[in-house]
Amino acid sequence: MSAPEPPARAVSPRQVQAHARLVAGLASRDFQLLAGPGCESMAAAIEALAPERFTYHTTVWDKFADGTDKIQIGGYQPQNVIAGSHVLLLCSFHNNDVTLSQFSVMIVLLESFVESLTVVLPFYPVGTMERVTEEGTVATANTYARMFSNLPLGGRPTRLMLYDLHTLQNRFYMSTGVIASLCTTIPSLLPRLSQDAVMCVAFPDDGAAKRFKHMFASAGFSVIVCGKVRHGDERRVTIQEGDAAGKAVCIVDDLVQTGGTLFEAGKALMAAGASQVSAFVAHAVFPQEAWRRFCRGGDRAIFERFYITNSNPTRVAEIPTDDVFKVIDIARRSYTTLTTTARSASDARADGEALITGVGFRQGQGWVGVRDGVIAIEIVVDTASASERAHRRVLACVYAWCGRSLLLHGAEAATLPTHRVMSTA
Question: How confident is the model at residue 29 (pLDDT cuts 50, 70, 90)?
Answer without folding.
Answer: confident
